[in-house]
Design goal:
Number of domains: 2
Largest sheet: none
Structural class: mainly alpha
Radius of gyration: 25 Å
């Protein structure tokens, strides 16, 4: 017995030794190295950059150099460069190092390291998403509280604009990652019968790139904010405070993270599906996730390019967007909206396909027209590339193109309607089991149709001329991104929570949260529709007294949403800690992620599965084997 213990101790010591420097790197070392490098570069840059006539550009150069140093130092400290450096010198990671990176037998510590296990990355994304929504929600409450009275007064006008911009930026980032981050990482590889993502290190990289921008994003507040709003319009951004530099770096790093994650998810879905899982047997969640990242891969780099050009304008006077010196503000508008409208479907498509995974399970009925769903998904992807300029109807840019862009915008309602019909057709005459995930299906249908119909109004040029820049537009895009997108994400959370945590989400608290959020949402944004139709503009911290009642109603609704989301947060925390233990397949679903034990083993499957039927044949005997 003693000799066995000695042998085991020697084995552990040998493994630790073979792991080398990787075992010393974690979130703490990342923050320390990043901070030290940032302070060092800041001091050197301050001494080397001689003040010239345009001292404000010199300050931008110093701030950008400091942020770049923080980013590089953080990535070194977290261990992101260990693998590439070893590969460059012709010595890749050994088996012990690979297992250490996967977080094997590491417990909770693996969530604070550069861990390559896709399940760990999925949980990391889930916690990050919850944190971002909490911060964005607090900022939303500040905005609505200020708008509760016609004279404002709680927040000064310039600070108010920065809070609106900061809220918008945080919420856009949160909604983009809310499904593809947690569920695209944790669930998708298991759903297709794979043991991991195609590129595990890139998987970890995509997450830690996002973590590296959090201090940069927070610095926006200390550096004067982003008074030009989350869209960062130039040449206003060129005239903005140093907080705009934080905005620029946030967007650039986020675009890199999205590209890395998108390439990894696409490769995983294309190349690592289980034997027998042809495209007609591949779950819709996989199609939707791949479609969303396929949209993001070309769109987000365009936005990143606009921010690189904006940085050059601010730091070096390049004047890409300043008309006074030969630049073009319309160039920025086009670069932004080429990303800005496909981004809506980057958010929306994963939410809808998550709901399409839930619907057959709880309707206990085969999916209504798998092929129609595929046509709808890729119809949206194709048309969404050709609608961006409907955001510029009123700008005066290329007025002859208003008609064609109006047509493509209205046409996109057809493939969107197909997805709507697939969900309705699946529910129709089904044996519906109304649990918490199914409630999200109903809510998405209700919110989706309101967001879609109001979008058709705004796609019409004369109607948009009347409503553009009003609170009506704010209500519309919240119904689309939050009413449909976030509702789908909440349904996905309730559905996959047992598989990700091993426990059931508290049904009672979940239902209370659901009704508070949905009722509050309807009250909030119907109030905004009302004042928008009456002519209240967006982005103002005080307004005419005729809009008082609508804004007061919206503020009351917003508080209801916030209380409901806090209850949901309490449900997640309490259920995760001591909720009811979940079985491997508590819903009786037929996709592969429910065929694994809970908690899911490190490599997911002992023996890789073989798929012989599609996953939506409820009432028909399945022949999936392992």
């Amino acid at each position: 017995m003693a000799s066995e213990l000695i042998t085991e101790d020697r084995t552990r010591h040998s493994a630790k030794k073979s792991v080398g420097i990787i075992r010393h790197l974690n979130l703490g070392t990342a923050v320390i190295v990043g901070a030290l490098l940032a302070v060092t570069v800041n001091r050197i840059a301050t001494k080397l950059i001689i003040e010239g006539d345009e001292t404000w550009r010199r300050h931008d150069q110093i701030v950008m150099a400091t942020m770049l140093a923080w980013f590089i130092g953080f990535m070194i400290g977290i261990g992101a460069l260990v693998g590439p450096t070893r590969w460059f010198f012709g010595k890749d990671l050994n088996h012990d190092e690979a297992m250490f990176l996967a977080g094997k037998d590491m417990g909770i510590k693996r969530y604070f390291r550069y861990t390559t296990d896709h399940k760990v990355v999925g949980i990391q994304y889930l916690i990050l998403t919850i944190a971002l929504f909490f911060i964005g929600g607090v900022l939303a409450m500040l905005i609505r509280t200020n708008l509760g009275h016609e004279s404002g007064g709680l927040i000064p006008p310039q600070v108010y604009n920065s809070i609106v911009g900061f809220h918008g930026l945080i919420m856009i980032i949160a909604t983009i990652i809310m499904i593809t981050g947690p569920f695209g990482n944790f669930i998708l590889p298991i759903m297709i019968g794979a043991r991991d993502m195609a590129f595990p290190r890139l998987n970890a990289l995509s997450f830690w790139l996002l973590i590296s921008i959090l201090p940069i994003l927070a610095a926006t507040i200390a550096l004067g904010g982003i008074p030009m709003g989350w869209s960062g319009y130039n040449p206003l951004a060129d005239q903005g405070p140093l907080g705009v530099d934080s905005y620029i770096f946030t967007i650039v790093i986020f675009a890199i993270s999205s590209a890395v994650a998108g390439a990894n998810i696409t490769t995983t879905a294309m190349k690592m599906r289980a034997r027998g899982m042809n495209w007609s047997r591949t779950p819709l969640f996989v199609f939707g996730t791949v479609a969303s990242v396929a949209l993001a891969l070309p769109a987000f780099p365009v936005f990143m390019l606009s921010q690189v050009m904006s940085a050059m304008d601010r730091a070096f006077g390049a004047n890409f967007f300043n008309p006074e010196f030969g630049g073009s503000a319309w160039l920025y508008e086009n670069l932004f909206w080429i990303m800005g409208h496909p981004e809506v479907y980057v958010i929306l498509i994963p939410a809808v396909v998550a709901i399409m995974e839930i619907t057959p399970v709880f309707a206990r009925k085969p999916l209504f027209s798998f092929n129609m769903a595929i046509v709808g998904i890729f119809g949206i992807v194709g048309l969404s590339i050709f609608v961006w300029a409907h955001h510029m109807y009123i700008s005066g840019w290329a007025p002859l193109l208003n008609g064609p862009f109006m047509l493509t915008t209205e046409l996109i309602s057809i493939p969107t309607g197909l997805l709507f019909l697939v969900i309705l057709g699946t529910i129709w005459r089904g044996s519906v089991w109304t649990r918490l995930p199914m409630l999200s299906v109903y809510a998405l249908l209700f919110n989706f149709i309101i967001g879609g119909v109001t979008g058709i109004f705004l796609s019409d040029v004369p109607e948009d001329a009347a409503l553009h820049g009003s609170m009506f537009v704010t209500a519309h895009f919240h119904y689309t991104l939050m009413g449909a997108g976030l509702t789908g994400a909440l349904g996905a959370l309730a559905y996959w929570f047992p598989k990700m945590t091993g426990r059931m989400l508290d049904e009672k608290l979940g239902r209370i949260s659901f009704w508070l959020v949905q009722i509050g949402f309807t009250v909030t944004f119907f109030g905004m529709f009302a004042v928008g139709l009456e002519g209240q503009p967006r982005r103002v911290e005080a307004y005419d007294i005729i809009f008082k009642n609508g804004n007061l109603i919206s503020t009351m609704g917003a508080y209801t949403i916030f209380i409901g989301m806090l209850i949901l947060l309490a449900a997640v925390i309490t259920s995760w800690r001591n909720g009811e233990i979940a079985g491997s397949n508590p819903w009786g679903a037929q996709t592969l992620e429910w065929m694994t034990p809970t908690p899911v083993p490190l490599e997911n499957f002992e023996v890789l599965p073989v798929v012989t039927t599609n996953p939506y044949q409820y009432g028909i005997k399945q022949e999936t084997s392992s």
